[in-house]
C-alpha cells in the first residue's frame, strides 16, 4: 500500500475512496505553490495503478498554451498501461468539433475496458483547447468510469485552466483544499528530510514558513549543505547564524554549494520554461553532451533537477524561478537569445521563440512580434482566445506607432470577437477606427465585429457595424459577406423587409464575385424572412436553392449549413420525416466539417420536430442537450431559443416548476443583452405566466407579440396549435379583440399557403417561379390551427370538427388531442354547431362521434405524448363541462393552471413498480442498450440520436434511479429483467 505524504493521510484516503468507487466525475485539488499538491496526486495515482486502473497523467507548463490540446493529449498518449484508443492523438489539427467527438469516443472505448483516471498537475497552465475539451468531456462522460483529477494553484487568475476549473466547481465538482501542514506534521517532515529527529531549534525555524512542505524541505536542505545544523545522537540542532530569510535565499544557498560547472549548468537551464533535454543544455553552453552528464547528476543529487526518462525538469517551478532570479540581466539576455536560436532550429512553437526573444533585449522585439503573430496563426483555429492574447501582447510590444500595427489590430479584433471577448474587441476596434484605417482594412475589421456581435446575440449592434462596413465596399466579396450577416441580424431586430433586401444583395453579389458562402447565407436569411411572414413555399424555396448551391460548391458554403433552415421549412410543412432526415444528414456534415458552432441549432430544430410529433420526452432530452452544448461552447445566445422550447414543453407536461426555472435562465440571458425572436422568448414567457394563473401578466407579455402577428405570423406557421393557445389565454383575460386578431391571422396564413390551381402557380405557364409542395402536408396543419382558433373564439363546434379532421391528416398528435378535448368540452356545453367555412376548406363531419368519444381519444393521445397537463385536465371532474356564458367566458377543455394536487415533475419519476417502469420509453431504450455494454456514442448511432441527447437521457436515468455508474445501471436492468438477452443488433464493438 502506498503511504501518504506526511500530513495528508485524510486527503489521500478520501481521494482514493473516490477513485475506488469507479464512478465518473471530477475532483479538484487546490492549494498555493509548494503546498504538496504534486506529492498527493502522485500518491493517489500510484494507488490507482495498484488497483489496475488505467492512469493518464501529466504536469502542465506555462508554454502549453503554444500547442492546442498538448496538456490532455500528452497525458492520454502516455497512459499506463498504454491504450491503442489514443494512438491517433493529437491529430486532426484545426478541426475542433471532430477532434472533441473522437476524443470522447476514445475515452469511452478505453473506459469500457477498465476504469480510467486522467490526472493533470498544475492545471492552471492547461492550454485553451484542452480546457475546452475537459469542459465538454467531464459532464459527457459522467456515466462512464472516467475520473478527472486536476491539481491547481489559485494564481494566476483568468487562464483557460483556471476558467475551466471554476466552471467545474460551479457544476458540482468535488474540491480538496490543501492548507499548511500542522505543527506535528512539519516536525515529521523535517525529520524525514534530515533522516534524524529534530529539536526545538529546528522546529522554531521551520514553523515560520506556513506549513509549506516545499519551503520546509528546501530549508532543511539549505541548512544541511551550508553546515548550519548538526546531528548528534540522532537529533538535529540548528547552529548557524546566517539563516536564509526567503525561499530565493534558500535556493541560492543550495546553489552556491555546488561547484562552478554544475552551478553554471543549473543556472543556464533556468531559461527553459518547460522540460528540456541534455542536448539542449549542451548547445546552450557550447559543450558536448557527454561532458555535462556528471554535472547533471550533481544537480539531481542536490534536489534542484529531476531526471525522468532522459527528460530534465526543475523539482518545482518555484525553484526554477528562484534560480533564474540569480542570473544577471546581461547573462539572461545572452542565454535567452541563444535559447531562441535553439528553439527555432528545433522547430519549437513560435510562442516559445517569442518568449525568449522578448527576454533577450530590445534588439529582439521586432522579431518577437513576428513570432507572436506566427504563434497566433498556429493556434487560432483551436484556441482563439489564446491567439487573441498573443496578438494583444504583440501590439503592446510594437507600441502605438509601430510598423504594421493597423493590420495587426484588425487581426486581433477578429480573434477577440471569435473568442467571445466582445468588450475588448469593440474597444480595440473603436480605437483603431479613431486612429484611421484604409478602406479595405476598416471594412474587414467591421465585418469581424458584425459577425461576432451577431453570433453573440447582439443583433442591433451587428446591424450597425455591417452598415458602417458597407460604406467602405463597392460590390465586392466583402460586401456580399456584410450583406449576409446584416440580413440575419435584421431578421431578429424585426426589420423583415430590410433583411430580405440584404439577403437578396448577398446572393446576387456573392454569385457575381464568386463568394458562394455569402450567397448561401443570404438565401438562408431570406428563408427565415419567408418563415417569419408565414410564406411556407418561399421559405422552402430559398432553403432548397441554398442547400443545392452549398452541395454543389462545398467549402465555406457548405459550412453555412443551409440544411438547418431547410429542416425548419420542412417542419412547418409537416413533412417531419424529411425534416428529420435533413437534420441527421446535417449533423453528419457538421461532424465531418468540424463546424461545432451549428450543434445547438441541430438540437433546436430536432426538438422542434419532436415537439410537432408530440414526442415530449424526447423533445426535452434534445433541447436539454442543445442547451448543454451551447453553454459548453460559450454560445449562450443559441441557448436562448432552446430554453424557450424547454419552457413550452414543460408547460405541456405540467412541469410548471421546471418551466419557471427555464424561464428564469432565459430572462437572465436577455438581461445580459442577448436577443432572440419574440416567438422564442415572449411566447414561452406568456405560457408560464398563464400556467401559474397570472393571466393578467400573460396578457401584458403576449399583447405586443399578438399586435405584431399579422406582419410576423411565424409562430402560427411553426406551430399551428399556438393560435388556439393564444386565443384561450386572451379570452380568459377578457381581450377578445386581440383573440380575433389571432384567429384572423391564422386564417390568413392558411389562405396564403392554400394549394392553387396548376395554372395559377408560380412556375406554371402563367407563373414566374417555383412554389414547392405546400400542399404536401402543410396546408392541413394550418387549416386545423385556424379552425381550432376560430372554434374556440366563436364557440363553433363545426369549426372544431374541421380542426379535428385537418389535424388527423398531419403528424401533429398533440394538436389533434387538444382540438378533440376542446370539441368535447364545447359539445358538453351545447355550443353552436353552425357550419363554419374556412378559406374554402370543407371537412367531413365525424359520424356519430360524441363528446365522450372525442374525450377518450384525446386522453389516449395526451397520455401517449406525455402531455400530463392536458391529461389531468381531461380527467378532472371540474373540467367535465364547459361554461355557457358566451364568447367572453373561459373556454373549457384545457385548463390554464397547473393541477395543484399533482406534482409538476415527470409522472415517470413516481415509482409505480419496477425501476424500468419509472423511465420514459426513450429513457428505457437507452438504459437497455447501456446495460448491453454499449458506449454513449454507440447508443447514439444505434438509436439515430445525437450523443448529447443520449448523455441527457442517461443523466435523467441516473437521477431517477439514484445511481452513479453504468455498472449500477446494468445491475438494475438485470434485476428487473433477469431472463433478458442482449439485443443482438446492438452488440458493442470492442
Automatic annotation (TrEMBL):
Top-level division of the source organism's lineage: Bacteria
Region (Disordered): 752-771
GO molecular function, one term: DNA binding
GO cellular component: cytoplasm
Stretches assigned to the HTH luxR-type domain: 912-977
Coiled coil: none
Matches recorded under InterPro entries: AAA_16, P-loop_NTPase, Sig_transdc_resp-reg_C-effctor, TPR-like_helical_dom_sf, Tscrpt_reg_LuxR_C, WH-like_DNA-bd_sf
UniProtKB keywords: ATP-binding, Nucleotide-binding
GO term, biological process aspect, one: regulation of DNA-templated transcription
Matching Pfam families: AAA_16 (PF13191), GerE (PF00196)
PANTHER family in the record: TESTICULAR SOLUBLE ADENYLYL CYCLASE, TRANSCRIPTIONAL ACTIVATOR DOMAIN
Full protein name: AAA family ATPase
Organism annotation: Cryptosporangium phraense
Amino acid at each position: 500500500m502506498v503511504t501518504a505524504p506526511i500530513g495528508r493521510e485524510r486527503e489521500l484516503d478520501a481521494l482514493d475512496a473516490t477513485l475506488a468507487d469507479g464512478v465518473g466525475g471530477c475532483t479538484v485539488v487546490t492549494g498555493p505553490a509548494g503546498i504538496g499538491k504534486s506529492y498527493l496526486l502522485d500518491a493517489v495515482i500510484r494507488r490507482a495503478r495498484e488497483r489496475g486502473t488505467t492512469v493518464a497523467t501529466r504536469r502542465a507548463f506555462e508554454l502549453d498554451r503554444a500547442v492546442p490540446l498538448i496538456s490532455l493529449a500528452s497525458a492520454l498518449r502516455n497512459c499506463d498501461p498504454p491504450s491503442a484508443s489514443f494512438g491517433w492523438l493529437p491529430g486532426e489539427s484545426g478541426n475542433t468539433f471532430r477532434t472533441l467527438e473522437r476524443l470522447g469516443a476514445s475515452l469511452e472505448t478505453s473506459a469500457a475496458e477498465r476504469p480510467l483516471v486522467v490526472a493533470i498537475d498544475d492545471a492552471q497552465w492547461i492550454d485553451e483547447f484542452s480546457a475546452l475539451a475537459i469542459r465538454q468531456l467531464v459532464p459527457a462522460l459522467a456515466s462512464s468510469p472516467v475520473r478527472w483529477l486536476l491539481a491547481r494553484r489559485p494564481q494566476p487568475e483568468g487562464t483557460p485552466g483556471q476558467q475551466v476549473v471554476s466552471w467545474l466547481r460551479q457544476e458540482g465538482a468535488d474540491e480538496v483544499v490543501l492548507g499548511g501542514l500542522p505543527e506535528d506534521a512539519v516536525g515529521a517532515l523535517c525529520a524525514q528530510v534530515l533522516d534524524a529527529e529534530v529539536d526545538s531549534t529546528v522546529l522554531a525555524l521551520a514553523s515560520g514558513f506556513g506549513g509549506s512542505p516545499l519551503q520546509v524541505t528546501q530549508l532543511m536542505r539549505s541548512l544541511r549543505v551550508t553546515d548550519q545544523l548538526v546531528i548528534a545522537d540522532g537529533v538535529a540542532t540548528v547552529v548557524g547564524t546566517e539563516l536564509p530569510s526567503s525561499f530565493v535565499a534558500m535556493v541560492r544557498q543550495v546553489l552556491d554549494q555546488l561547484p562552478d560547472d554544475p552551478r553554471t549548468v543549473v543556472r543556464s537551464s533556468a531559461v527553459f520554461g518547460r522540460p528540456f533535454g541534455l542536448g539542449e543544455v549542451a548547445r546552450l553552453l557550447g559543450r558536448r553532451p557527454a561532458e555535462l552528464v556528471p554535472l547533471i547528476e550533481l544537480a539531481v543529487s542536490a534536489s534542484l533537477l529531476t531526471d525522468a526518462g532522459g527528460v530534465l525538469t526543475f523539482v518545482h517551478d518555484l525553484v526554477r524561478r528562484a534560480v533564474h532570479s540569480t542570473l544577471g540581466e546581461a547573462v539572461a539576455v545572452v542565454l535567452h537569445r541563444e535559447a531562441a536560436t535553439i528553439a527555432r532550429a528545433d522547430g519549437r512553437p513560435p510562442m516559445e521563440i517569442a518568449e525568449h526573444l522578448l527576454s533577450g533585449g530590445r534588439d529582439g522585439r521586432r522579431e518577437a512580434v513576428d513570432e507572436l503573430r506566427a504563434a497566433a496563426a498556429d493556434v487560432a483555429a483551436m484556441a482563439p482566445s489564446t491567439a487573441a492574447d498573443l496578438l494583444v501582447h504583440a501590439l503592446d510590444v510594437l507600441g502605438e506607432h509601430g510598423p504594421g500595427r493597423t493590420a495587426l489590430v484588425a487581426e486581433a479584433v477578429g480573434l477577440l470577437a471569435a473568442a467571445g471577448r466582445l468588450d475588448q474587441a469593440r474597444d480595440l476596434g473603436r480605437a483603431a477606427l479613431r486612429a484611421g484605417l484604409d478602406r479595405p482594412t476598416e471594412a474587414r475589421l467591421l465585418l469581424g465585429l458584425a459577425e461576432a456581435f451577431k453570433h453573440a446575440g447582439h443583433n442591433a449592434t451587428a446591424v450597425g457595424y455591417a452598415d458602417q462596413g458597407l460604406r467602405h465596399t463597392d460590390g465586392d466579396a466583402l460586401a456580399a459577406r456584410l450583406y449576409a450577416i446584416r440580413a440575419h441580424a435584421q431578421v431578429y431586430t424585426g426589420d423583415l423587409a430590410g433583411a430580405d433586401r440584404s439577403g437578396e444583395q448577398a446572393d446576387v453579389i456573392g454569385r457575381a464575385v464568386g463568394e458562394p458562402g455569402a450567397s448561401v447565407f443570404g438565401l438562408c436569411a431570406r428563408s427565415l424572412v419567408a418563415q417569419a411572414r408565414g410564406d411556407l413555399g418561399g421559405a422552402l424555396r430559398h432553403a432548397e436553392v441554398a442547400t443545392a448551391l452549398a452541395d454543389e460548391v462545398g467549402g465555406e458554403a457548405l459550412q453555412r449549413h443551409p440544411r438547418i433552415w431547410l429542416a425548419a421549412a420542412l417542419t412547418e410543412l409537416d413533412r417531419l420525416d424529411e425534416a428529420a432526415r435533413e437534420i441527421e444528414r446535417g449533423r453528419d456534415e457538421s461532424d465531418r466539417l468540424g463546424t461545432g458552432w451549428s450543434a445547438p441549432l441541430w438540437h433546436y430544430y430536432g426538438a422542434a420536430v419532436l415537439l410537432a410529433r408530440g414526442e415530449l420526452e424526447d423533445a426535452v432530452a434534445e433541447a436539454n442537450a442543445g442547451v448543454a452544448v451551447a453553454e459548453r461552447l460559450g454560445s449562450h445566445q443559441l441557448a436562448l431559443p432552446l430554453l424557450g422550447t424547454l419552457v413550452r414543453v414543460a408547460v405541456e407536461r405540467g412541469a410548471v416548476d421546471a418551466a419557471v426555472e427555464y424561464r428564469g435562465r432565459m430572462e437572465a440571458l436577455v438581461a445580459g443583452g442577448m436577443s432572440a425572436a419574440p416567438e422564442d422568448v415572449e411566447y414561452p414567457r406568456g405560457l408560464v405566466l398563464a400556467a401559474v394563473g397570472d393571466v393578467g401578466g400573460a396578457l401584458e407579455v403576449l399583447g405586443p407579440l399578438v399586435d405584431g402577428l399579422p406582419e410576423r405570423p411565424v409562430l402560427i406557421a411553426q406551430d399551428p396549435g399556438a393560435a388556439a393557445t393564444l386565443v384561450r389565454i386572451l379570452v380568459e383575460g377578457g381581450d377578445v379583440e386581440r383573440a380575433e386578431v389571432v384567429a384572423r391571422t391564422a386564417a390568413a396564413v392558411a389562405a396564403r399557403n392554400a394549394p392553387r390551381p396548376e395554372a395559377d402557380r408560380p412556375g406554371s405557364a402563367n407563373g414566374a417561379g417555383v412554389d414547392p409542395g405546400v400542399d404536401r402536408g402543410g396546408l392541413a396543419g394550418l387549416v386545423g390551427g385556424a379552425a381550432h382558433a376560430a372554434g374556440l373564439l366563436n364557440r363553433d363546434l363545426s369549426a372544431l370538427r374541421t380542426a379535428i379532421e385537418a389535424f388527423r391528416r398531419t403528424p401533429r398528435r398533440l394538436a389533434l388531442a387538444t382540438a378533440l378535448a376542446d370539441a368535447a368540452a364545447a359539445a358538453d356545453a351545447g355550443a353552436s354547431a353552425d357550419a363554419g367555412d374556412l378559406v374554402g376548406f370543407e371537412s367531413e363531419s365525424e359520424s356519430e362521434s360524441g363528446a365522450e368519444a372525442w374525450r377518450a381519444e384525446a386522453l389516449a393521445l395526451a397520455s401517449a405524448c406525455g402531455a400530463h397537463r392536458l391529461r389531468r385536465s381531461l380527467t378532472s371532474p371540474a373540467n367535465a363541462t364547459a361554461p355557457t356564458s358566451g364568447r367572453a367566458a373561459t373556454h373549457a377543455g384545457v385548463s390554464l393552471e397547473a393541477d395543484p394536487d399533482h406534482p409538476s415533475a415527470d409522472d415517470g419519476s413516481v415509482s409505480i413498480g419496477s425501476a424500468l417502469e419509472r423511465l420514459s420509453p426513450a429513457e428505457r431504450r437507452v438504459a437497455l442498450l447501456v446495460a448491453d455494454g454499449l458506449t454513449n456514442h454507440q447508443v447514439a448511432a444505434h438509436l439515430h440520436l445525437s450523443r448529447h441527447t443520449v448523455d441527457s437521457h442517461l443523466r435523467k436515468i441516473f437521477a431517477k434511479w439514484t445511481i452513479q455508474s453504468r455498472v449500477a445501471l446494468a445491475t438494475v436492468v438485470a434485476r428487473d429483467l433477469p431472463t433478458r438477452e442482449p439485443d443482438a443488433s446492438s452488440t458493442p464493438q470492442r
